[in-house]
Amino acid sequence: MVVLQLPRRRRNWVAVAGIGGAAVTVADLGLYALLLIGQGNPPGSRVFFVGTFLALMAVLGFAGAAARRPVARMLIYGFTAGGGLGLGLLGIDSIGLPLLAVCALSIVALSRVADHVSAPIIIGTAAAFVVLLMGIASTS
Q1: Domain annotation covers residue 8
Q2: 13 and 109 Cβ atoms separated by less than 8 Å
Q3: Terminal Cα distance for the chain, rounded
Q4: Within a domain: residue 2?
Q5: In whole numbers, what is the pLDDT of the chain averaged over residues?
Q6: Are 131 and 53 in contact (CB under 8 A)?
Q7: Strand, coil or helix: what is 37?
């Protein structure tokens, strides 16, 4: 009797976490749009900033899944982890919980890429906080 085995592919958990984070961010962007339509108020500049920041995080989630260099992945996932945490805590009562899930998925990806906290992770996270805080402060 001959047993035929198909070759098993190892899952690339870093790419899976990046695609999952991007998918959650896109869904959260849709939820954000639905919440804004339900309010009926004319959108202000902060609304556009938050929408653009969510779109940026979705693009970076896909870019982190496609990137091959570990340094680039650490920088990208550091940004998505910091951005998900910052915006998730700011919007905890409306769109924040899915963004905290994006943060968790980014941390899973970072744990697979790096064995310790390094400069690209810190730079990516700090950049996310700076962009988020400057955007919120300038769109008051």
Answers
A1: no
A2: yes
A3: 73
A4: no
A5: 87
A6: yes
A7: helix
Q: What is the pTM of this model?
A: 0.85
Overall average pLDDT of the 35-58 stretch = 84
Q: Using alpha carbons, select from 10, 2, 18 the residue that is nearest to residue 109.
A: 18
- For the chain, what is the largest distance between any 2 Cα atoms, rounded to a whole number of angstroms? 73
Domain of 39, in residue numbers = 13-138
pLDDT of residue 123: 94
**What is the number of other CB atoms lying within 10 angstroms of the CB of residue 135?**
17
Backbone angles phi, psi at 74, to 5 degrees: -65, -40
If one counts the domains in the chain, the total is 1
- Say what the pLDDT of residue 112 is: 87
Region of 69 on the Ramachandran plot (φ > 0 left; ψ -120 to 50 alpha; else beta)? beta
Angle at 95 between CA 77 and CA 47, to 5 degrees: 95
CB count within 10 Å of CB 29 equals 20
Residue 111 placed within a domain: yes
Mean pLDDT of 89-118: 89
Question: Is 91 strand, coil or helix?
Answer: coil
Q: Is residue 7 part of a domain?
A: no
Residue corresponding to tokens 């310790």: 116
